[in-house]
Amino acid sequence: MDSQAANAFLAQRISSINSISALCEATGADVEEVAKAIGMDQRIGSKFLKASIGFGGSCFQKDVLNLVYLCEALNLPEVASYWQQVIDMNEYQRRRFACRIIDCLFNTVTGKKIALLGFSFKKDTGDTRESSSIYISKYLMDEGAKLFIYDPKVLKEQIIHDLSQPSISEDNPER
User: Fold this and answer.
1) Residue 166: is it exposed, middle or buried by C-beta count within 10 angstroms (0-12/13-18/19+)?
2) How far is residue 47 CA from its own chain's centroid?
3) How far is the C-alpha of 120 from the C-alpha of 153, rounded, in Å?
4) First-to-last CA distance in the chain?
5) Do 129 and 121 form a contact (C-beta atoms < 8 A)?
6) Which pathway does the database say it acts in (predicted)?
7) Which residues share a beta bridge with 87?
8) What is the pLDDT of residue 23?
9) Which residues of 87-120 are buried (b: 16+ CB within 10 A; e: fewer)?
10) Cβ contact 126:158 at 8 Å
C-alpha cells in the first residue's frame, strides 16, 4: 500500500500541474514560470512540476485505479471520485495536446504527415506501457494523420504492436 499511495500522489502531482498548464494556456500565463513559483514554496518543492502530455508507465495509472477500486469497495465514493479525477485529468491532457496539434495545422490533419519524436513513456527508456504517445497517435490517426514515429530506445516492432491494439487501431491495424 505504501508504494501504491506514493505513486498515486506522484500521478496526482503530474495531473495537478497539467491542469494548471491548461489554465495558463487559456490566460496567456507561462506555465513554467508558475511551476517555478510553486516549486519555490518549501512545503511543495520543485519535483514533478513539469507540465507534460501526461503520465504513463505501468505503475501510476494501475496504482491510482487500484486506489479508486479500494475506495469504492470501502464505500468511500467521494474519495474514489477524487482519485478517478487524476486519471480523467491525464486523459484530458492527452486529448488537449492532440487537439492543439490539429488546431495548429488549420483544424485538420487528414492526409498530413506528422513526425512524433519519442514514443516511450519517459526519456531514456524503451518502455512504452501506457505511454501518452500511444494515445496521442490514436487521436491523430483517428483524424486521418499519417504518422512518422522515431524513438531511439523503442523498436519499430514495439511501436507497430502498440498502435495495432484494438483499442488504439479500432479493429483496423493496417492504418
Assistant:
1) exposed
2) 17
3) 8
4) 41
5) yes
6) Nucleotide-sugar biosynthesis; UDP-alpha-D-glucuronate biosynthesis; UDP-alpha-D-glucuronate from UDP-alpha-D-glucose: step 1/1
7) none
8) 96
9) bebbebbbeebbeebbeeeeeebeebebebebbb
10) yes
pLDDT value of position 8: 96
CA angle 36, 63, 95 (to 5 degrees): 60
Alpha helices in 28-76 (DSSP H): 31-40, 60-73
Tens-place pLDDT, residues 91-148: 999 999 999 999 999 999 999 999 999 999 999 999 999 999 999 999 999 999 999 9
DSSP states of 71-125 as a string?
A: HHHTT-HHHHHHHHHHHHHHHHHHHHHHHHHHHHTTT--TT-EEEEE--SSSTT-
What distance lies between CA 142 and its chain's CA centroid?
A: 17
Q: Which three cell numbers stand for residue 102?
A: 490539429
Instruction: Give the DSSP per-residue string, 4-16.
Output: HHHHHHHHHHHHH
Asked if pLDDT for residue 7 goes beyond 80, the answer is yes
Alpha carbon 122 to chain centroid distance? 11
Q: Give the pLDDT confidence score for residue 124 in this predicted structure.
A: 95
